[in-house]
């Protein structure tokens, strides 16, 4: 594969525009650029999560997710291009089923907390939801395949489940919300 980037500081964006993969230029506040940026931020947060001690299967899964998010970013950068495949969504479905099977049923809301890996997984979850909203907004503006939206939706669910898995490493547990309403109901 040839070199794709020859220099980083091109100064072509100084006017408030950026180039897409099809060589068109759009404003840096364009919905497509927002979606691309949110996906890039999500990928960076997953990279930070990978700095933690994680189970080997989760590590391999997250590395694949990073590659798929790069595919998604590539697809978003070229209007009409298809790069993220439906089997990537199926892989997340399989991972959700696998990791959910290890967890006790949820009986109360949990807080985005716990150990560092779990807390970072929750950050990834919220950024995935923001990226999904950006992709939905972009799709409302013009044609966009459903695979990117589906992938981000499943990924945010997976990050929630992985946060629960990570909180159980070394004997930990979820951090449950202390609901005042439920507390009063239990006292009655």
UniProtKB/TrEMBL annotation:
Q: Which GO terms describe its molecular function?
A: ATP binding; corrinoid adenosyltransferase activity
Cross-referenced InterPro entries: CblAdoTrfase-like, CblAdoTrfase-like_sf, PduO-typ
What family, per the record? Belongs to the Cob(I)alamin adenosyltransferase family.
EC number(s) given by UniProt: 2.5.1.-
Q: Cite the Cobalamin adenosyltransferase-like domain residue spans from the record.
A: 8-165
Q: How does it assemble?
A: Homotrimer.
Catalytic activity as recorded in UniProt:
2 cob(II)alamin + AH2 + 2 ATP = 2 adenosylcob(III)alamin + 2 triphosphate + A + 2 H(+)
Q: Which Pfam families match?
A: Cob_adeno_trans
Put simply, this protein is called: Cobalamin adenosyltransferase
- BP GO terms, sorted: cobalamin biosynthetic process
Print the keywords alphabetically: ATP-binding, Cobalamin biosynthesis, Nucleotide-binding, Transferase
- The ranges of region (Disordered) come to 1-23
Among PANTHER family, the record links this protein to: CORRINOID ADENOSYLTRANSFERASE, CORRINOID ADENOSYLTRANSFERASE MMAB
Coiled-coil residues are none
């Amino acid at each position: 594969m040839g070199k794709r980037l020859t220099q980083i500081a091109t100064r072509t964006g100084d006017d408030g525009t950026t180039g897409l993969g099809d060589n068109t230029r759009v404003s840096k506040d364009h919905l497509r650029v927002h979606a691309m940026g949110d996906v890039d931020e999500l990928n960076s947060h997953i990279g930070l999560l990978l700095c933690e001690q994680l189970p080997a299967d989760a590590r391999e899964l997250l590395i694949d997710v990073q590659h798929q998010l790069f595919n998604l970013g590539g697809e978003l950068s070229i209007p009409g291009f298809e790069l993220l495949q439906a089997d990537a969504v199926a892989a997340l479905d399989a991972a959700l089923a696998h990791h959910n099977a290890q967890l006790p049923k949820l009986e109360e809301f949990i807080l985005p907390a716990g150990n560092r890996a779990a807390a970072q997984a929750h950050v990834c979850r919220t950024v995935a939801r923001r990226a999904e909203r950006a992709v939905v907004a972009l799709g409302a503006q013009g044609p966009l395949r459903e695979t990117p939206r589906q992938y981000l939706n499943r990924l945010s669910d997976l990050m929630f489940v992985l946060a629960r898995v990570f909180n159980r490493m070394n004997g930990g547990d979820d951090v449950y919300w202390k609901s005042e309403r439920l507390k009063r109901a239990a006292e009655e």
